[in-house]
Automatic annotation (TrEMBL):
Pfam family name, one: HGTP_anticodon
Assigned protein family: Belongs to the class-II aminoacyl-tRNA synthetase family.
PROSITE patterns documented for this protein: AA_TRNA_LIGASE_II
Name this protein carries in UniProt: Histidine--tRNA ligase
Reaction equation(s) it catalyzes: tRNA(His) + L-histidine + ATP = L-histidyl-tRNA(His) + AMP + diphosphate + H(+)
Gene: hisS
Length: 465
RNA sequence: GCGAUCGUAGCUCAGUUGGUUAGAGCGCCGGUUUGUGGUACCGGAGGUCGGGGGUUCGAGACCCCUCGAUCGCCCCA
C-alpha cells in the first residue's frame, strides 16, 4: 500500500472485473422496464433525515445505527438514502405526482447504510427499483411481479423462485400478531435470548430467527391464514390467480414477513432454490429481489392514504449470478490498428474513426516495439490487426492480418470495414459452434438479405448481437 | 455495536524455535529477433513486511494500540 495515498472509505468498493456484469444488469433492467412502461425517474441521493426516519417509527437500531446521517453547514440533519421508496414517496407528495396515479416508476443507483461490511453487505451498494404508486388494485401487484420475473429471466438467472406471502390488512395483521405473541409467550422459556427481546419489540421478526431452537418453535406457530379478513383473503387470491394467469411461478411462504407497520398485503422475495447454482453462489438464505405493498407509508410522511407496491434488487448480487450464467457480453475487439511509425499515426486515427463509425470496436496500439504492439493486439483478442508502415503509406494501402487464420492482405483502407465484417461473421460462427448452438446455413444468407443490408451499420450491429 | 481470523512486490503466496544484503511464481520492462502474435532462454525494475509504539544485542516473526480486509452475530427499510 502506498504510504501517502488516501484509503477508500470502509464498505465502499471499486468495481473493475465485475463492472461489465453490473452494466449488463442495469441495461437489462432498463430494457424490461420499458416493456411494461415504467417511467424512469431520477432521485436525489440525500434527503432530510426525517424522510427515512419517520416511516420507520420507533425502531431504534435502524434509525440510530444503520443510517448514514450527518449535519450540513446549516445544522440540518441529512441522510444518504438507505433505500429508494421513502424518497420516491416524498417526491410523489411534494411534486403532486398524484395527478399521474397510478404511476409506474423505475430507477437505479447507489444506496448507503452505515453497516459493518460482510458478505454481500456494503456501506455503498446499488439497487434497481420499481414502484407502482397510487394503485390499490391487486393487478398492480401482479404486473410488478411479472416485470420482476422477466428481469430475472432476461438476466439468465436460473433456480430462483418467487416466495409469496400476505400480511393482510391492518385488522388481519393485528390479529395475527396478537396470536403470535400469545404463542411465543407460552414458549418464552424455549426462545433464544435475542428472540425474547424480539417478542417485546418486533414479534414478527421471530419468524426469521436463525436460532435452531427458535426455528423449531416457528414451525408450529400460527400462520396468517386463520386471521385474514374476507377482504384481505380475496385480495391475496386475486394476486395469486393473476400470477398464475401471467405465467409467473410462485411458492407460498407463510412465514415471510416485513417488520414495519406500513406494510400491507403482499410481501415477496425471490430466493435461490435449495441446491441450485444460484444458492451455491449466494447461500440459500440470500434474497435476490424483494418487496411488497406499503399502503401505509404515505401517511407517515403527511400525505393522503396512497396504496402502493414496489420492489428492489441488489445489483452486486445479481451481477454475481449473471457472471455465473455466462450471459454477459464479452466486448471483444474487432480491429487492432498498429501504426508502425509515428508518421503512420494520422492514417491510423483516420481509419479508426471510419471503422468506429461502422460500429466496429477499434483500438490503436501505437507504443512500444512492433512486436509488443502485435502481442497486445493478440492479448486483446482482436479479430484482425491492421498494420500501417512506410510501405503502406507510400502506396496508400494498409495490411490487414486475420489473427485467427494468420493470413494477411494488402488493401485499400476503405475495404477494411468489409474485411472486419467477414471476420466478425467467422467469430460468431466459431463462438456459436463452441456453445453448441445450431448454426444456420450461412450460404443461404446473402440472397435473403436486402441489398442495402450492409449500408446501415446499425442494422448490422444489431443483427449480430 | 459484539465476536473470530487475517494484513509480506502490481497479483497469488513462501519466509524454520526471533539471527547477516526479505524470496518464488505470474505480470511489467529490456535482450537473443532493425516491419509481425507463440514458446524457450537471459537480464532488469519493483518492498521503510498496513501504520505507530514497546520487548530484545537483534523483530516480517513476540506484546500493546490503531487502520484496513474477510467471515459470523445484532439489524435488515
Amino acid at each position: 500500500m502506498a504510504k501517502n495515498t488516501p484509503q477508500a472509505i470502509r464498505g465502499t468498493q471499486d468495481i473493475f472485473e465485475e463492472a461489465e456484469a453490473f452494466s449488463f444488469v442495469v441495461d437489462t433492467f432498463e430494457r424490461v422496464r420499458k416493456l411494461y412502461r415504467f417511467r424512469r425517474i431520477e432521485m436525489p441521493v440525500f434527503e432530510r433525515t426525517e424522510v427515512f426516519s419517520r416511516p420507520l417509527g420507533e425502531t431504534t437500531d435502524v434509525v440510530s445505527k444503520e443510517m448514514y446521517s450527518f449535519e450540513d453547514r446549516g445544522g440540518e440533519s441529512l441522510t444518504l438514502r438507505p433505500e429508494f421508496t421513502a424518497g420516491i414517496a416524498r417526491a410523489y407528495l411534494t411534486n403532486g405526482w398524484q395527478q399521474h396515479a397510478p404511476l409506474k416508476v423505475a430507477t437505479h443507483g447507489p444506496l448507503f447504510r452505515y453497516e459493518r461490511p460482510q458478505k454481500g453487505r456494503f456501506r455503498q451498494f446499488h439497487q434497481i427499483n420499481a414502484e407502482i404508486l397510487g394503485a390499490a388494485d391487486p393487478q398492480a401487484d401482479v404486473e410488478l411481479l411479472a416485470m420482476a420475473d422477466q428481469v430475472l429471466r432476461e438476466l439468465g438467472i436460473e433456480g430462483v423462485t418467487l416466495n409469496l406471502n400476505t400480511l393482510g390488512d391492518p385488522e388481519s395483521r393485528e390479529a395475527w400478531r396478537a396470536a403470535l405473541v400469545e404463542y411465543f409467550e407460552a414458549h418464552r422459556g424455549d426462545l433464544s435470548e435475542d428472540s425474547v427481546t424480539r417478542l417485546e419489540q418486533n414479534p414478527l421478526r421471530i419468524l426469521d430467527s436463525k436460532d435452531r431452537g427458535d426455528m423449531a418453535l416457528v414451525k408450529d406457530a400460527p400462520t396468517i391464514d386463520d386471521y385474514l379478513t374476507d377482504e384481505a383473503s380475496s385480495f391475496f387470491d386475486s394476486v395469486t390467480s393473476g400470477l398464475d394467469a401471467a405465467g409467473v411461478s410462485w411458492r407460498r411462504a407463510p412465514r415471510l414477513v416485513r417488520g414495519f407497520d406500513y406494510y400491507r398485503h403482499t410481501a415477496f422475495e425471490f430466493i435461490p432454490d435449495e441446491g441450485s447454482t444460484a444458492a451455491d453462489a449466494l447461500g440459500s438464505q440470500s434474497t435476490v429481489l424483494g418487496g411488497g405493498r406499503y399502503d401505509g407509508l404515505m401517511e407517515t410522511l403527511g400525505g393522503a392514504h396512497t396504496p402502493s407496491v414496489g420492489w428492489a434488487a441488489g445489483i452486486e448480487r445479481l451481477a454475481m449470478l449473471v457472471t455465473a450464467s455466462g450471459k454477459v457480453s464479452d466486448n471483444h475487439l474487432d480491429a487492432a490498428i498498429i501504426p508502425m511509425t509515428d508518421a503512420a499515426l494520422a492514417a491510423a486515427l483516420d481509419l479508426a474513426r471510419d471503422l468506429r463509425g461502422q460500429w466496429q470496436t477499434v483500438e490503436i496500439f501505437g507504443t512500444g516495439k512492433i512486436k509488443r504492439r502485435m502481442a497486445r493486439a493478440d492479448e486483446a483478442g482482436a479479430l484482425v490487426a491492421v498494420l500501417i508502415g512506410e510501405d503502406e503509406l507510400s502506396s496508400g494501402e494498409v495490411t490487414v492480418k486475420d489473427l485467427h487464420e494468420g493470413e494477411q492482405v494488402r488493401t485499400a483502407p476503405s475495404d477494411v470495414g468489409d474485411i472486419v465484417a467477414k471476420a466478425q461473421n467467422a467469430y460468431y460462427m466459431r463462438s456459436w459452434r463452441e456453445q453448441g448452438i445450431d448454426i444456420p446455413d450461412m450460404d443461404a444468407w446473402p440472397d435473403d438479405l436486402p441489398d442495402d443490408f450492409f449500408a446501415n451499420p446499425e442494422d448490422r450491429h444489431r443483427d449480430f448481437e
